[in-house]
Amino acid sequence: MSTKRKDHAINIIMVIIGLTLFSKVIGFARDAVMGSIFGTGMESDAYLIGLGITTIIFLSLGTGIATSIIPISVKLEKSKDKNKVLSGIFNCVLLISGIITVLCFIFTPEILHVFAGGFEGEKLALTIKLTRIMIPTVFFIAVAYLYVGLLQAHEHYLLPAIISFPYNLIAIGYLIVGVNGYGIVGLAVATTIGWFLQMVIQIPKVHQVTGFKYSLQIDFKNSYVKEFLVGIVSISIIAATQQITYLSDNTMASHFGDGKVTTLYYSNMLFLAIVTTAVYGITSVMFPKFNKKFAELDKSAFFSAINSVLKGIILLLAPVSVGLALVSENAIGIILMRGEFTFEDVKMTSLLLIGYASYMIAFGIWDVLNKAFYTMGNKKVPMMISVIIIGSNYILNLLCVKKFGIVGIPIATSIAFYIGVCISCLFFKRSEGELDVIGMIIVGMKALISVFVMAITILGVNSIWNQAFQSTHILMKLVNVILDVGIGMAIYLLGLLILREKNILDFIHAFKMKKKKKGDHEYE
Predict the structure, then answer these.
(1) Which one, of 320, 415, 312, 310, lies nearest residue 370 by Cα?
(2) Which of 108, 110, 191, 486 is deepest in the core (most CB within 10 A)?
(3) Which residue, of 408, 435, 462, is where some domain finishes?
(4) Mean pLDDT across the chain, nearest whole number?
């Protein structure tokens, strides 16, 4: 990749991360308002289980659809059959998501007996009602993510990065204005309407960018349609790994009494908000580029890009995971501690978040390697890894919960993902031989040393802060978190510079050259 194109890709990634982060902040606001109104009681547990079964788990279907359509759309870019093939794929999505929606509605009680085994009586009845209200989101998610994939294939990333705005704004508006009249049932309705709008707002841009003209036809014998159908099955299973482990975690948490499902949800939500902002911000831009390099038979550039992204993921997520653990209690207190959400709820959510934060790097490497395998047409290995992660998580949940109680749930998930990543790296290295393991270890060691110094510094700063300011006011907590983040970033980057980390030095050199060229241009 040329320096100019690399700089352009970095700029796009930074914009996407910024927009996604802004979307997550609005999501935090939504959850903060919900937490203050419903706390960690029966109603919030019922809503979050319903949300998990409908929206959260079927996001994996959306991911499968978006990921599968990208390489096909790249291949069809100049084909005369583009509209015919895309119409067939679109109709397949409508058919599949429609069938799933109907089946989920009919068998809601049976599904809940699996994923909410600890619920019974009034709590179970409410959960069934809320789940059925939100089931249409399965259909809206499928179509919305087909549009996301088409836009990303044509290198339009901004709209996909902000599609969560309608849902979040509608949910917040309802919680502020309408919750007293319709309660938790109204929130389920608002969730469904929000996902409908997330689908609708993309339609004009998709038609403008792709020139797609819909027709009512499906050719199941078409090679592209077959490729798409095979792709969404395998990739959806792979993408569902995190969601299935979360639902498995939820099932375990449902046996610990009222409120535990809710605290687990908030900790997992905060973890995913941060890790997906960073990881998907990078891979959503790089995955179409991986496909183009591979399609051009430029394998050297393809593997170079994979290794570069993996090292970048390690450098980025190492300080984020440790930093998140260090500021977790203050951050959760700022976002959630009001109304019915108590200090004890904050402490429990913080402990669970620390457990989830420990597998942030594993999540990032897992996602990048999955994208690499997809590009090479190998979906068997990622599927096998997903089965290993899900199975390991279930077994480890049983073991860790006995040893550590509810805190054992995220510990089990973390161990399961690291097992999966190690096996994935081994298969990638053996099958392709192009994984720079030594380079990744060196980068990891430099990141580890820098993070250790960063953590010691932040702990020292917090000790001094707590002695000087003993206030628990939300503003003081916010200042403390900002101070921790600022000092932590500075110490971490300084550590990498002292250790002469190549990726950081290259970035600084590129920034200086860009600034110099801009200055020369202005001088002329």
Answers:
(1) 310
(2) 191
(3) 435
(4) 83
